[in-house]
Specification:
The complex is a heterodimer of chains A (about 120) and B (about 120). Helix content of chain A is about 0%, strand content about 55%. Chain A contains no helices and twelve strands. In chain A, about 35% of the residues are buried. Classes of the chains: A mainly beta (about 120), B mainly beta (about 120).
Chain lengths: ~120, ~120
């Protein structure tokens, strides 16, 4: 079974600064996907970024980037130029790359507060 | 367009009521999901429908009854719920088998309160 660990229950960052959220996972699979989702107080779970394990290049989406270390089973999220709208719960998630496999395994989440 | 819609946004029901939650997507996705999320916790998978057939049931009590009438629509029928069933119910969809199809897109959720 896969496990996903987010070791920072809460974090805060000043507006316009950079923050990194950590995520580690445990799996025996060699091919899989990793995701970061954010869930603002408005409740909707929004995809932030996606990484395929077979790709060595780290994924980037505008101000969001990941540091994917496959050997270390680490998948951290860096948010640059933090904005007030980035305040949310952030979940790291793992999915096996198997035909017919649909199950996301979530970490417990990191609550990020962006301070004006 | 990556929109999944859910109705109603809020629902309050008594333990003897029967109600239904509705989820809709028009992205042509062929897998749809129900999750339950308690406060300050990650979502927990309840059911998965793949090509309109139930493929995963995570040992959910029978008072929750899913239904997938067509590829765009997913319902969750509720009956004789308990107060501990109060939670945010999230629907998601994905398109397995296609490039990037592993990504699940979530709806805004229905906040359910059982009195």
């Amino acid at each position: 079974a896969q496990t996903v660990t987010q070791s920072q229950p809460e974090m805060s960052v000043q507006e316009a600064e950079t923050v990194t959220l950590s995520c580690t996972y445990d799996t025996s699979e060699s091919n899989y996907y990793l995701f970061w989702y954010k869930q603002p107080p408005s409740r909707q779970m929004i995809l932030v970024i996606r990484q395929e394990a077979y790709k060595q290049q780290n994924a980037t989406e505008n101000r969001f980037s990941v540091n994917f270390q496959k050997a270390a089973k680490s998948f951290s999220l860096k948010i640059s130029d933090s904005q007030l709208g980035d305040t949310a719960m952030y979940f790291c998630a793992f999915m096996k790359a198997l035909a017919g496999s649909y199950q996301l395994t979530f970490g417990k989440g990191t609550k990020l507060s962006v301070i004006p | 367009d990556t929109e999944v819609t859910q109705t109603p946004k809020h629902l309050v029901m008594g333990m003897t009521n029967k109600k239904s939650l509705k989820c809709e997507q028009h992205m042509g996705h062929r897998a749809m999901y129900w999750y339950k999320q308690k406060a300050k916790k990650p979502p927990e998978l309840m059911f998965v429908y793949s090509y309109e057939k139930l493929s995963i049931n995570e040992s959910v009590p029978s008072r929750f009854s899913p239904e997938c009438p067509n590829s765009s629509l997913l319902n969750l029928h509720l009956h004789a719920l308990q107060p501990e069933d109060s939670a945010l119910y999230l629907c998601a969809s994905s398109s397995p088998g296609l490039a990037g199809g592993d990504t699940q897109y979530f709806g805004p959720g229905t906040r359910l309160t059982v009195l």
